[in-house]
Design a protein that fits this description.
By secondary structure, the protein is mainly β. The chain has 5 helices and 26 strands. It has a 4-stranded antiparallel β-sheet with strand order 1-26-25-24. It is globular and about 55 Å long.
Length: 361
């Protein structure tokens, strides 16, 4: 029955074969809040950012850094051969995801615990402590590095997973598999957690006891990434980039996708990106983007900056944007610190500070 439905949808251009994209409207109405925010730190490849006892901690490549009050990286906490692809802070602990090497724990009662096994999450994309002895891990794809998210999207990968790691016993348990890039996870204080399934543009509610999942937020106009808690029991939802109709069309042409991935250098794929406009050789340089040599904020774009504040029930309340002509794209992580919200713009290599954004929630 599913095969028949897919055949009909493809012929009629509906369902998963549709190339329409939801508009940014309501709580997602575009603005320039991220571009107007202060630059707290310049950090090449700024990726994960969390708050722990040492203050604000961020990752850049294979390094884990503490950011000083003025934004400078005043202490290198750890350095690894593999890229740091996920971070989470627990009680006196820092969980570090290493792209291709699994997870390691530094500090606290489980200091030195590592998960680097064939049957386990070797390519973490996000981490969250369920309690002092349990860590939740998402793996974007079982055979893809976290940095290869664009290839997994264009190949329509579906090997993402959610794991539960016991820090006491060292046991790794798979909760869910077959996900189209598990990009983020957040605990809620119970056995229900929020999970971002990026390529299906939705947030799932997952029961850890039964493994049952239900869509909580669907048909998003962008690709959701990590989820961070807010002090008001809500959440901050980060996004890789927004969707556009050209990419949606290409995703429905597998032969074209295969040739593009095989013959075109990755920076020039017609695919979402963490930053764009860096080379004239990039796609989408046509007149629909520019008027009199100027990129308009409402232009079609491969990269975008977007962070959304959601309620405890994962309903969008307000959002912060860097539009097509902005310079704060690829916002893959956010964290509250006092009254302020800090956002890692990986695309443009900086950590942004939105003063008072958490207080205004």
């Amino acid at each position: 029955m599913n095969a028949i439905r897919r055949f009909i949808d493809r012929r009629l251009g509906r369902g998963e074969a549709a190339i329409t994209v939801p508009v940014l409207d309501g709580p997602l109405m575009p603005n320039a809040a991220l571009d107007e925010a202060g630059i707290f730190a310049e950090l090449a490849g700024a990726d994960n950012i969390v708050l722990c006892g040492k203050g604000l901690v961020a990752s850049s490549g294979g390094r884990v850094l503490r950011l000083g009050p003025a934004g400078q990286a005043d202490e290198e906490l750890f350095a690894f051969d593999n890229e740091v692809s996920a971070l989470a802070c627990g009680k006196g602990m820092l969980a570090i995801g290493l792209d291709g090497k699994g997870v390691t724990i530094r500090g606290g009662s489980h200091d030195g615990r590592t998960y680097d096994m064939a049957e386990g999450p070797r390519h973490p994309t996000s981490l969250a402590f369920l309690d002092a002895d349990t860590l939740l891990v998402t793996e974007g794809a079982s055979s893809r590095r976290a940095r290869d998210w664009r290839r997994d999207l264009m190949e329509k990968g579906a090997s993402g997973s959610l794991w539960r790691l016991s820090l006491a016993s060292g046991e790794a348990t798979k909760i869910l598999g077959g996900l189209r890039w598990a990009g983020g996870v957040a605990a809620t204080g119970s056995q229900k957690v929020w999970l971002a399934e990026s390529w299906r543009h939705r947030i799932l509610s997952v029961d850890l006891t039964s493994g049952r999942m239900e869509p909580a937020l669907e048909h998003l106009p962008a690709y959701p990434a990590r989820i961070a808690p807010a002090v008001d029991a809500g959440f901050w939802l980060s996004f890789f980039s927004v969707r556009n109709q050209l990419v949606e069309f290409i995703l429905r042409e597998p032969a074209y996708c295969r040739r593009m991935l095989a013959e075109v250098p990755e920076p020039f794929w017609m695919a979402p990106a963490l930053a764009s406009g860096l080379s004239f050789s990039e796609p989408m340089q046509g007149s629909q983007l520019r008027r009199m040599g100027v990129t308009k904020p409402f232009a079609e774009t491969r990269s975008y900056g977007l962070v959304v504040h959601c309620s405890a029930q994962m309903k969008p309340l307000r959002s912060f944007h860097s539009r097509a002509d902005g310079a704060a794209h690829g916002c893959v992580a956010a964290v509250e610190h006092g009254d302020d919200l800090f956002v890692a713009s990986k695309g443009h290599g900086k950590v942004l500070r939105l003063a008072g954004a958490a207080r205004e929630a």
